Amino acid sequence: MGIPGGFGCVLISGLISAMLYGITILQTYVYYMAHCSKDTSTVKFLVAATCILDTLHVAFMCHMLYHYLVTNYGVPTSLEYIVWSFPVRLPNFLQVIPRIFPLLRHRLW
Questions:
Q1: pTM of the prediction?
Q2: Please, which residues have CB within 8 angstroms of residue 28's CB and are 6 or more apart in sequence?
């Protein structure tokens, strides 16, 4: 498949993820400026933890994309190993999911 075919979809998904990250930051800011006075400290902590974990996820994704598409572009031997930020993304992302559902359940009920 090579770099153009294989990393094109990864780059597009990374750009979409970065745009959604901007929305997350905006929502977090609006929450703390306008709505957090009514919530418990547990909900405030979950919002902050979700924002921090999402920040880490986007940072790891950007590092992986930069490593493969900028630093090692045109170096086929760089595809023989996985950069450290790629396997770290999955456990980080899996920590975000269980924190989001209690927030949604709290807001809906």
A1: 0.77
A2: 47, 48, 50, 51
Contact predicate 60/85, CB 8 Å: yes
User: What span, in angstroms and rounded, lies between the C-alpha atoms of 58 and 53?
Assistant: 9
Tell me how far apart the alpha carbons of residues 43 and 31 are, in angstroms, rounded to a whole number: 11
Q: What angle do CA 55, 51, 60 make, to 5 degrees?
A: 20
CA 57/CA 93 separation, integer angstroms? 6
Q: Tens digit of pLDDT for each residue in 21-55?
A: 999 999 999 999 988 888 888 888 888 888 898 89
- Residues 58 and 88 sit within 8 Å (Cβ to Cβ): no
User: In angstroms, what is the C-alpha Rg of the chain?
Assistant: 17
